[in-house]
Amino acid sequence: MMDRIRGDIFVDIYVIGSISSLNIRVYQEDKKSLNVIQRKIGIKLPSVQKAIEKNKLTLCWISNDEYLLLSEKKENEGLLNQFQKQMNLTTGVAEYTTDLRSWFLIKGNRAMDILRKGVPLDLGKLEIAERNFFRTRLGEIQINILIKSLDEILVSVLRSHKDYMIDWFEACSKRGTEINFDL
Amino acid sequence: MSSRLPHEGSRINRKKTVDFRFNGKNLKGFDGDTVASALLANNELFVARSFKYHRPRGIFSAGEEEPNALMGIGEGSFFEPNIRATEVKLKQNMNVETQNHWPSLKFDFLSINNLFSRFFAAGFYYKTFMWPRAAWKYLFEPMIRRASGLGKAPVEYDEEHYEHIYHHTDVLIIGGGLAGITAAKALRDRGLSIMLCEKDCVIGGRYLEDCKSGNQERYKKLHKSSMEILKKSQDISVKLNTTVTGIFDHGFVLAYEENQHGNIASKKALWKIRAKTIILCTGAIERPLVFPDNDLPGIMLAMSVCDYLQKYGVLLGDRLVLTTNNDYSYKTVIELKHRGIDIPVVLDARASSDNPIVKEAKGLGIRILFGKCIGKVEGKRKVSAIGICSVNGEGTIEELIPCNAIAVSGGWTPNVNLWSHCGGKLVWDGECGFYKPDPENTPTGREGETNMLALGACAGVFSDYDIQDQVPRKINQLSSRLKIKSKRYIETNIFSKEPEKRTIPTFVLPHGASKDKQNKMFIDFQNDVKLSDLQLAAQEGFENVEHAKRYTTLGMATDQGKTSNINGIYVLSQSLGKPVDKIGHTTFRPPYKPIPLGLIAGQYAKKLFKPVRKTPIDKWNSLNNAIWEPVADWRRAYAYPKGKESLEETLNREVLSVRKNVGLLDSSTLGKILVKGPDAGRFLDLIYTNLMSTLIAGKCRYGIMCNEAGFVFDDGVVVRLNDQTFLCHTTSGGADRVYAWLEEWLQTEWHHLKVFIVNLTEQYSQIAVAGPKARELLQTFRSIDLSAEKLPFMNFIETNIDDIWVRIYRVSFSGELSYELAVNSNQAEELWNKLVKAGKKYKVQPYGTEALHILRAEKGFIVVGDETDGTVTPHDLGMEWIVSKKKNDFIGKKAFSLPHLNSILRKQLVGILTLDKDKVLPDGCHAVEDGKAIGHVTSTYFSPTLKRSIALGLIENGRSRKGSTLEFESSSKESTFAKIVDPNFYDPEGTKHDG
Amino acid sequence: MLYLFCPTCQRDCDETELSCGGQAHLIRRDHASSDKDFYKYQYERKNDKGIIFERWRHVYGCGKWFHTARCTITNQVFGSYSAKEVQPPKSILANIRRSRVDFKGWVK
What we know:
Oligomer: heterotrimer
CATH superfamily of the largest domain in chain A: Probable tRNA modification gtpase trme, domain 1
Distance between the termini of chain C: 28 Å
Strand order of the largest sheet of chain A: 1-2-8-11-10-9
Structural class of chain A: alpha+beta
Strand content of chain A: 25-35%
Structural class of chain C: alpha+beta
Largest sheet of chain C: 4 strands, antiparallel
């Protein structure tokens, strides 16, 4: 059950809450840790600002030594648990960060528009098609953006910013404030 | 008398009447009118009082250069002052008010200033209000403040919808006139994204009106085909009603969109644009000639007269005189003459002109006098007649001609403001009499490349033929320079080359105007700067143009001298006997035109002004009457008053519950940073002043971090989760700072260390259960054994409370038996509720941050930010024990060996007990000895436990003063005496923390 | 408003995504250093008009530090490079020389 942000707004925004996730830190040359990731998760490390999805598990690139693993399926919990334990036996890190973030789903053909009101990145279509996980700022706060498709975007903020984010969405998604060009 | 013609007006829809109110009067205009055109249609010529002399002023232009017609528009929470009436679209029931007068526009008390105008010359304030000194503060300043300023600030909250929008583009074209449109067409299909911003509500610029006269068919055809191309080109995005107001580094551009599409009636957006290349097509602004009495209502820029006629069907007057120095302005009188308007005379300052347009005017029977200009204007509140004089002379009137309107044209000034915003230089074009962009000194972008190109009138290229000829060529050059898909763009020039005849520019007429006349020749209308003021400034030695500008305030009004700059610079050059190009020009700065403050705030007002971070227990706190305290971006419960309790009673109850029973604290905001890796211990030894690598897994240790200067930076408890992993707790406000600090050292200094850190602050919530009955409370959940043997002080265990995983640290910030429970944030509220429920039996009380602070102050525990201020060392705090002597290196070690950090004169932490135990010292008050401040109070409370006032403070050589009494200045009138003691007021032996 | 290239994210960053860390290539002086060297490390910073080397952190993005060479007069940027470099890479210096013939090279 997801809450939808109410009001006369030009996109659909759902308040998801938590998504099972782990922050992973690993050295590129640390074969042992990489091996654990490969064996347990079965996803090769994504390249810069990419996310790779497989079996409802998504591995997102945060930095050259930091990744975010998302699980959108309950059945994966046991796997995540094992992975975390094994990973922490290496010099890498896997820490649960499920409770740390609050997620939102933006849906609709104007999904990108709403982000353009707060994100200083070039969200032009070409670049989006190539790379799809961004970590940047939205207004005054940090935000993670996972672009599933041009009309389906997952974003997350620190859980303490959840209410602020809802207020922001309400203020910026009013119908009549779509971003348009003339002629 | 200004009026509306029965037909005509390309911008208005005569079928739709719009009612509006002007100074309380109900008037009518048409849909599409600007406030200015509607006022003119209603014969409201006199619409403003000038800034300094309160002289009557009329609408002077039809655009953003307007210096006079500034108005208060809207009402209540939509009221906006100082808006140019020439730019605002008229809306149904709009309220329009004039400003800068009292009691009314027509009878303005301060117009008396006009009679004394010779006393108000440049530098008047500096010279007049020098003495007596006190008079400035009590008499002059209040008086001047009341008299000065234009519009009134709104009194209600601004309810307008404002927002920011980010946009990225390869090319930004600024201005949608002939040059801008041609540039867009030439750039398309090259794989570039192109954005075109036009300030007007239609594309076309000047030629739109030219379509209606002269070479109609050619213009119409061109316009039609251009519009089709712009519409169908996917790579061109056009924004109308959008004014670019500033250009900044690395192609960052701010644009102000005043009306967006959509059903929100009025909406304003600030576009934050990143453009790789900027093409400036901002056109030119007509400038006036300077002549005696040139500021009376009824005088208007020639092209604006024509604009009102063609766009709005509004006539400035039915007997109009043109005073000019150029050919283009003849268009205005020809258009008027075609409509049967009486043009008694055209005064052309030049010796002659054989341009076809002049011949055309002559052919229409218009009387043209060359070498003549206006020597005086008659009329009190509006023009009634002009006196003709010769341009060369002092202005002897040869002939008086009655008229009710004057069109004035001193030529055109390229609109170069934006070129200058980010480093572009200008060159003086002596032949045409204006500054234009210097193609050798362009604004540059991130790679040092030229990132701006000026085309068309803003580059000093005025004829349509030249524009159509040059723009494609320059765009082709640009494309090959940018190495973009280089497809040559060719456009057939539909215009014919016009004979180029340049005339020596004139600015001030008559050339030899007498002193008396000079005193009535206005240069800057908005700031009331006269010719005589500039001459005075030059005489008094303000030779640099920037100095003269500030001395006279020329060009410093909200219009930034759009119509006055060049004339002012010319006058200065004449007065100093220097050529204009040696005078230079003042600096153009953003914004190009004023923008509302609300636009700068955008959506970040009210609830969005600043992010408020909420803890997982925030809902409970808020339902339980918490008073909030901001801690960094967090809101934390400061106290939980019950019923009619006073705050003092609340704090008393909360503190005593911890001392006597048990209390609960939401300390979720505490920073929690995981440090993991084979070198984690080594790394923490470098970060903390004490040893962390020796900490045994399962144990906690308090630590302090200093910076390299040796000053305390953060503190908190470090726990060792296992061999490779530590969890470092930081202060609530310091979590992000400490996280960044650790990353910085790891990434930039000690990158050889194998350590990773993760900021887990919000993954875990923390709940403190403190008080003698804390253990009993927790043990009601049968699963856990928390005996002192099982869980000794400064140890932790991991267990479950019911089915909730918790990590329980036995640490104490109050001196009592205390447990801090870390829990996954999603379960924090559930755990909190369980504890509240289980605690009922023990009369558990939630306590807030203020009680927390009192409890720790009673124990003499420091708070970073209270007892420290970035200049305090651990030694100052009496915490030598925390600075390791064994460690080879750590941040701050070198500093601790420096003599000034070991001086006995340093301020040291002490306890302070007032002699009068009910007297609580004010926070921050100074300790005074022999008239000298020797320290200050850092924390001060009434202690409910000790039933007396307690304080902590930093006092020079404080530790050796223990037992002595010091004087504290609690206010300017009063002193309080207090005894210096050990900073530990409660249970100094530390017997309580075991319960 | 600067627009700098983050070598980790391989993309341009608005200045609002970054935090500036001042002069790059400082050498840390520990407790064994002389008072004078320590003073220099702690308090002495260059304030050149012209080319500077400075530290930035992509704080809203990957969180990584990087260095840039920038001209304080025109804000021309000559490239970003890893914060692990102890001195500006040759390619950056060559880039500077291409547009600043009088550039004397990097001074410690």
